[in-house]
Amino acid sequence: MTTTTQSRADAKAAAAHAAYQPVDGRLLDVENLHVHFHTSDGVAKAINGVSFHLDQGESLAILGESGSGKSVTAQAIMGILDVPPAKIPEGHIRYCGQDLLAMPEEQRRKTRGPEISMIFQDALSSLNPVFPVGWQIAEMFREHRGLNKSDALAQAVRLMERVSIPGAKARVKAYPHQFSGGMRQRIMIAMAIALDPAILIADEPTTALDVTVQAQIMSLLQELQQERKMGLILITHDLGVVADVADRIAVMYAGRLIETADVYTGYANPAHPYTKGLLDSLPRLDQKGQTLAAIPGLPPNLLKMPPGCAFHPRCPLARERCREERPELVEVRPGRFAACHYTEEVLHA
Amino acid sequence: MGKYIVRRLLLMIPVVVGATFLIYAMVFAMPGDPLAGRCGERPCNPAFAAKFRADHNLNDPLPIQYAKYLGNLAQGDLGETFQQVKVADELQQRYPITTRLAIIAILFELFIGVLAGVLSGIRRGKFIDNLVLVSTLIVIAIPTFVIGSLAQYAFGLKLGWFPVTVSPQATWFELLLPGMVLGAISLAYVARLTRTNLVENLRADYVRTATAKGLSRARTVGVHTLRNSLIPVVTFVGADFGGLLGGAIITERIFNIRGVGGYIFQSIHSRDGVAVVGAVTVLVIVFLFMNLIVDLLYGVLDPRISHD
Question: Which ipTM score applies to this complex?
Fold first, then answer.
């Protein structure tokens, strides 16, 4: 890599980012987001009025079981939902003050990669099997920055080195199936951070990996986030991963946020019975030999949502009121929000 | 890769020997006397008959006949027909015509087929998709001789866009209409195969990644999805090309083309065993080579397939 190529690439990058500047450090504002899926069985309301925000350099973990809507939220922000069957009937997703949902498609497409980017759970199926990994990373520079083939490939090697792929230069022409799971995820990460995005969304980035590799990938993500001051949205159901990385947590259930808190208070003293149930279901060494606590029942069918609070059929605190009236997300302590009629009971339990 | 090719070439030897033997045995078992009708309305002169039988090894038992034939074949001699015409000469005349016809058919089915498949796949459920699905179904359902005769009548006779029949020179232009008729059914399969694979691949995770990378829709479909979707199509088209190089009996007859298919048909009719076996041997070899090329191409298109 020559210095001129590097500075040319940097200049182009700077120019590309100029259009979007965070307002008071606020990168992303999701407001009253709704996502519906139109299926032959009816309308599945996957997201029902979700609001949250993300600041520069902040990590937000979105927690929830499968089907809670956490991945759909991520895909809605990224703009990669299949429309149809998905539809966004209501809501705003503001990136640096500009509503992504109101943007012309071409303008929005250009935010994917340079402004917001995403890594996925299964890196093997998420990388194209018939193109070399270096080519796939270099494509970001060729398509968004107009770099020529060799300059783009040099950038790809630099990124592969940055995410600690051994022998990057020699392996730039290798195909995804020639890498191990952890290395593939590193390649996904290299591709996602290629254009210095302001927001990185990681959708269960470590679920498909074994435990030792999980830790390496998470610490790489954390390192890159601090180095580049990215906003990180971490979608996961792994509470252990969250505790290490996240600043704030947002817990989703049946397409709604039911609790948001900073990670310390949220873990130490949950305000919603569902969050408490999730935390209690973690195996703990000091309770070895005792029965593992589990939340009874299954998440509700999105086509047949229970009336009132969606969690009431599984909730140990459920009462008549829970069946009839849906609790709103309200501020229960300064900076903490929960959607439960009996928050105080949970907090004092 | 080199080792793989050598192994495949060596494997061809038993296949060619086995295939020619089967053909030879079948021709041997065909009822009827090759001498019948040879000498007009009367039986042949016994001396001529004896010489004819001896020249063509007709008195030997099957294994000896076949061994003699194979010995000649190994020296590159495909033998002589009962009319004293060298099979090799006849094939040399006819093979270029069949090849031209096959090339036209394959280009037609590949380009139009893939185009129709892609348009139909990216507009799933829309008008163009239904148009492609219904029209390909119709083409598949109609036998070649009907399509051929209709095309000849409409475009050759009525509209006069193309020559009605093909001259002995069989120029590219003359072979255009027959080539399209020949490729029509495979075109329908190529279109459907492309469509199915494209629709399937558009749901793949790596397509979602391509979208998340901020690539244009054209690039996502045209580069990322299409490359993966075309792998099975190439296999199909390659095998089809091998088949087309074996001649096309029906299409050749409709348009009066002097190709390989018609030659084999004629030879079977006149019980000319040497001609049948000679022509089929060449076809078997061509087909085997086409298969090898397809397999090698498969490895090029899909890096996950290794020939080492």
Answer: 0.85
